[in-house]
Amino acid sequence: MGQLDGRVAVITASTRSIGRGIAEAFHAEGASVVLSGRNAEKGQKAIEEMGGGDRLHFIAANASKQADVEALVDGTVEKFGRVDIVVPNAGGVANTAPVAMMSDEEWQYELDFNINQTFWMARRALKYMVPQQFGRIIGMSSMYGKITTMAVPGYITNKHAIIGFCKALAKEVGQSGITANAVCPGFVPTDMFYETGPATVEAMGLPDLDALAAVMYSVTALQRPNTVEEVAAACVLLASDLGGGITGTTINVDAGASPY
Question: Could you tell me the pTM of the whole model?
Answer without folding.
Answer: 0.94
